[in-house]
């Protein structure tokens, strides 16, 4: 964490506490001292998510969101952070994305969300526009916590490649692409396959390397069901849209 801060703000402050993070005032003071108002300022916000915080207390993933700021946007972000009484270096990725819109950040700029597990594997969710990310977050938040969705999909990617060899889930290395492309039909198929093989509890146990309390398992399963319902709704909507296109174009829409 200290290395990340030092990389972002070289020589800003001397950090004696390895878990200490610079305050908003310190960051603002450092940026002002550089006197480079016209230069784009890169900001990386690390955030260790705690899945089911009330039950597990297990920091199983590290999510960070990257966005390139203009000086005027950064100034507004500092003001908003002070108003909300939050530390920019520890705010969650979802909250940070909402803050971008509150300060009027352009919605057509690219944005990346990175997920890293155990400091080994890292996956990147690339959104062509900030507005795409906001739209996705808004949809998913209606059914399940965002970090839980990413965590679930990443667990799927950790599994062996073939079902035939070990009767386990295949390696879904393209799950993030399915999300970005909003390929709900194929993504829903992956979730259904996982449920049929009853792998979700096993994945959760193996991934976190600890026992789950019963309440946490019930909560996690409930979230999974809601997530599947959300995917099914998206898939049905997409299929209906395709059928309407066929009808409007004069196609017969015969069954295959």
TrEMBL record:
SUPFAM superfamilies: CoA-dependent acyltransferases (SSF52777). This is Condensation domain-containing protein.
């Amino acid at each position: 964490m200290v290395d990340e801060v030092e990389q972002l703000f070289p020589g800003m402050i001397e950090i004696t506490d390895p878990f200490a993070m610079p305050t908003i005032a310190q960051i603002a003071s450092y940026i002002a001292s550089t006197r480079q108002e016209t230069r784009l300022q890169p900001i990386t916000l690390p955030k260790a998510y705690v899945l089911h915080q009330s039950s597990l207390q297990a920091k199983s993933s590290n999510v960070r969101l990257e966005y390139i700021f203009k000086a005027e946007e950064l100034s507004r972000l500092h003001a908003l952070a002070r108003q909300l009484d939050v530390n920019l270096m520890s705010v969650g990725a979802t909250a940070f994305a909402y803050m971008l819109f509150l300060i009027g950040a352009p919605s057509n700029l690219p944005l990346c969300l990175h997920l890293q597990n155990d400091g080994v594997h890292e996956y990147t969710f690339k959104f062509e526009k900030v507005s795409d990310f906001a739209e996705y977050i808004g949809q998913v938040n209606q059914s399940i916590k965002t970090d839980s969705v990413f965590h679930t999909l990443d667990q799927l990617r950790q599994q062996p490649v073939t079902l035939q060899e070990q009767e386990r889930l295949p390696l879904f290395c393209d799950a993030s692409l399915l999300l970005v492309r909003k390929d709900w039909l194929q993504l829903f198929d992956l979730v259904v396959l996982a449920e049929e093989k009853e792998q979700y509890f096993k994945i959760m146990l193996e991934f976190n390397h600890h026992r789950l309390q019963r309440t946490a398992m019930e909560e996690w399963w409930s979230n999974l069901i809601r997530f599947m319902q959300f995917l099914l709704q998206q898939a049905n909507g997409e299929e209906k849209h395709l059928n309407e296109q066929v009808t409007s174009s004069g196609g017969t829409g015969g069954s295959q």
